[in-house]
């Protein structure tokens, strides 16, 4: 399975979301996970390096790939339960190449006007890529929402803007919480710092809603029914090894 976390707007928390979903799948769903960092800023690669300092944490592998990465992703998919692709905040070749093979595409947006302006363009990109990959399930998710009750309408209005297009909009959201930044700096996830906290539950509900599964157990069973062809256990059990490719 290939999951894209991407979009045209930077700063919406794509890397944070990708990292936390990766840990949820590896830790609570017992999946072998490969992360692909397509962002020149190397946010996920740096997070993996910090994570490697803690061998007690579930192993997550990471590679850097750029450009025409379609065949590379298909190859990685044969060896892992899930390949999570973290694309930078722009419409580029890697984003479109990933959409041509992804099972799921998750596009984070903040409930801000400048983020919502990108919805129309991303709708066009998704529509184009689905001509090649009609089975891809694309979804918008609203992230970094304000916690004040008086701002609840702002969140709903953002969802309504997204619903005017043909792309699914998740009911689940993330709120602006310091724990997201704190966990990323240490190479951990919110589930490893505060497993029963609100942020951890936000990640769980987003992942389950995106995959259309009720809970981690159901997701684990889904992976068991479609195990990779070979070598997945070996790759998934080793400590991460970062590799760089310029394509």
Automatic annotation (TrEMBL):
Question: Which N-terminal residues, if any, form the signal peptide?
Answer: none
* Superkingdom of this protein's organism: Bacteria
Give the matching InterPro entries: CobQ/CobB/MinD/ParA_Nub-bd_dom, DNA_Partitioning_ATPase, P-loop_NTPase
- CobQ/CobB/MinD/ParA nucleotide binding domain mapped to chain residues: 3-184
CDD domains annotated for this entry? ParAB_family (cd02042)
Q: Which SUPFAM superfamilies match?
A: P-loop containing nucleoside triphosphate hydrolases
Q: Which PANTHER family does its entry note?
A: COBQ_COBB_MIND_PARA NUCLEOTIDE BINDING DOMAIN-CONTAINING PROTEIN, P-LOOP CONTAINING NUCLEOSIDE TRIPHOSPHATE HYDROLASE
Q: What is this protein called?
A: ParA family protein
Q: Look up and give the organism this protein is from.
A: Shewanella mangrovi
């Amino acid at each position: 399975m290939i999951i894209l976390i991407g979009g045209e707007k930077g700063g919406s928390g794509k890397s944070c979301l990708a990292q936390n979903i990766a840990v949820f799948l590896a830790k609570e769903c017992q999946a072998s996970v490969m992360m692909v960092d397509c962002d020149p800023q190397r946010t996920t690669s740096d997070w993996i390096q910090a994570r490697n300092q803690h061998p007690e944490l579930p192993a997550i592998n990471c590679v850097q790939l750029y450009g025409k990465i379609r065949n590379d992703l298909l190859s990685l998919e044969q060896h892992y339960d899930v390949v999570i692709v973290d694309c930078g905040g722009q419409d580029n070749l890697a984003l479109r190449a990933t959409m041509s093979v992804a099972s799921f595409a998750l596009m984070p947006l903040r409930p801000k006007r400048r983020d919502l302006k990108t919805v129309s363009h991303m709708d066009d990109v998704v529509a184009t890529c689905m001509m090649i990959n009609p089975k891809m399930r694309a979804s918008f998710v609203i992230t970094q929402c304000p916690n004040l009750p008086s701002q609840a309408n702002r969140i709903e209005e953002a969802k309504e803007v997204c619903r005017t297009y043909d792309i699914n909009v998740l009911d689940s959201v993330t709120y602006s919480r310091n724990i997201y930044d704190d966990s990323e700096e240490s190479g951990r996830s919110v589930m490893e710092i505060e497993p029963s906290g609100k942020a951890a539950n936000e990640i769980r509900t987003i992942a389950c809603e995106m995959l259309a599964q009720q809970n981690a157990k159901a997701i684990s069973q889904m992976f068991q029914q479609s195990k990779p062809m070979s070598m997945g256990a070996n790759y998934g059990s080793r400590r991460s090894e970062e590799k760089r490719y310029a394509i």
